[in-house]
Design goal:
The chain is an alpha+beta fold. It is built from three helices and 13 strands. The protein has a four-stranded antiparallel β-sheet with strand order 11-12-7-13, covered by helices on one side.
Length: 179
């Protein structure tokens, strides 16, 4: 059995949880998150603790045991204190502008890059180069950050592009001049 899966999840007072079949609905101060899970695990909720058990001894049930428990724990933590990712844009003329529910990125292409922001995610742009992504769903916050970064990943020669704050990119030496 999974060591992570065996641990019970304590539910704080400000968090409301509903377990219906294989679906879990969690709501709190930072938002609402819901997720459906495989029938390979059984989710038991007794008011203050959630426990996850594998339904049988199959390899799939064993794999899902710890995974489902970790996802539910992330849901409970996310509705209490939202998950945050910070992105930095570096490069001459590279910038981001928030236009309502769409992030407009100028990344050196001949056209603007438009990224529609999901409803449960809050994005703020500071100074045109710092993007702050916040939300209750850990997976969705990471996916939005990865999608934005994928438009122009940092290139190793000049170091320009979109990076996660604090990310260090190994710089490469450019062409050698002919002698």
């Amino acid at each position: 059995m999974s060591r992570i899966g065996k641990l019970p999840i304590a539910i704080p007072g400000a968090v409301k949880i509903t377990v219906a079949g294989g679906s879990v609905f969690v709501s709190g101060v930072a938002g609402t998150v819901s997720q459906s899970f495989s029938d390979a695990v059984e989710i038991k909720f007794d008011g203050s603790i959630i426990e996850v058990f594998p339904r049988d001894d199959s390899r799939h049930a064993a794999a899902m045991h710890g995974t489902v428990r970790a996802i539910i724990n992330n849901m409970v933590n996310g509705v209490q204190k939202p998950y945050v990712k910070n992105l930095e844009i570096q490069g001459v003329g590279f910038k981001a502008i928030l236009k309502g529910n769409v992030l407009d990125l100028a990344l050196g292409y001949s056209h603007p890059v438009l990224y529609p922001i999901p409803e449960s995610i809050k994005v703020t742009v500071k100074d045109g180069t710092a993007i702050h992504i916040e939300g209750a769903d850990k997976f969705l916050v990471g996916k939005v950050a990865a999608d934005i970064k994928r438009f122009y990943p940092v290139e190793p020669y000049k170091g320009k592009g979109v990076r996660i704050a604090g990310e260090r990119v190994r710089r490469k030496e450019g062409k050698k001049s002919a002698k």
